Amino acid sequence: MNTKGTAGKLISFYNKFGIIFILILELIIFSVANSNFFTPNNLFLVGRQVSFYGIAGVGMTMVLLVGEIDISVGSILAFTGCLSATLMTQMGLSIPVAFLLTLLLCCVFGLVSGTLTAVLKIPSLIGTLAMQTIIKGFTYLMTGGSSVTGLSDRFKHLGQGFLFGVIPIPLIVMVVMFALGFLLLNRTFLGRRIYAVGGNQEAARLSGIKTRAVVVGTFVVSAVTAGIAGVLMAARLGTGQPSTGSDFAMDVLTATVLGGVTLQGGKGFVLNVFIGSFIIGILSNGLTMCNVPEYWQWIIKGLVFLFAVAMSNLEALMSKK
């Protein structure tokens, strides 16, 4: 990247070390502000909280890499939690069957969102905004606005339990998802095509890449990862709650952009989103532990998102000079 002057040096420093610096700064601030921040119980809580952002962040990364955006993930989170809970408690299905059926429906959601964007040429922001509203409506239609209760302890263990009594199970799932995301993006033809489409869609099309299929595929992955997070969230809460996920899309987007995935597409590294997820999870947990009012939390998170986007855009501008 060709950078000049102090501004260029600062942006270069941020691109190399920014997320690590922010993470360390967060840890210092919240550990000083609240002596209970570094207790084992709270660290376990942070691990669980981070995992949901990270799992969905893997899918969001792929959508952003092709130059699109998916804001329906919050509604998918709520819908899949309620659907899986309903399938198990009211239809008597086993956990694996309910899980697979839920993810199949997520594939449908992703196909619809991807088709709206890649085939009908509806801007992804508009298309996924519509899908967000539609899915939210289906969630409340299915549940009547009430929580789905009566889940088994075995299912709850998926969201509340620990591996070897130490590592939260959702955190293990997140690590697996990031490993799969890394392999897909960096070791497969599909991954190279995702980067190519995001870098220059027309050039990718002329080179023989089926750009529409690639874009649709990323939306399917995004919906599936949001669905996995939704099922685990229901297990963690012990109920399927239709109101879950109201701020989820913003948190996932912030984690992804903080991780260096640009909104312009074609640039980003999925493993950095792992750190971005920890930044957002720690921020949410730390603000809550410090008894910061919810409205101030919204303001702070919004400012963090704007900061992440601004730094991403500045990097793009400086690289063109």
UniProtKB/TrEMBL annotation:
Q: Which GO terms describe its molecular function?
A: transmembrane transporter activity
Localization: Cell membrane
The signal peptide stretch is: none
Q: Which residues cross the membrane?
A: 17-38, 50-79, 91-112, 124-142, 162-185, 213-235, 247-263, 270-289, 295-314
Task: Say if the entry is tagged with keyword Transport.
Answer: yes
State the InterPro entries in the record: ABC_transp_permease
Q: What domain of life is recorded for the organism?
A: Bacteria
Membrane-protein topology: Multi-pass membrane protein
Q: Which residues form a coiled coil?
A: none
Keywords, sorted A to Z: Cell inner membrane, Cell membrane, Membrane, Transmembrane, Transmembrane helix, Transport
Gene Ontology CC terms, in alphabetical order = plasma membrane
Q: Could you identify this protein by its name?
A: ABC transporter permease
Give the originating organism.
Answer: Lawsonibacter hominis
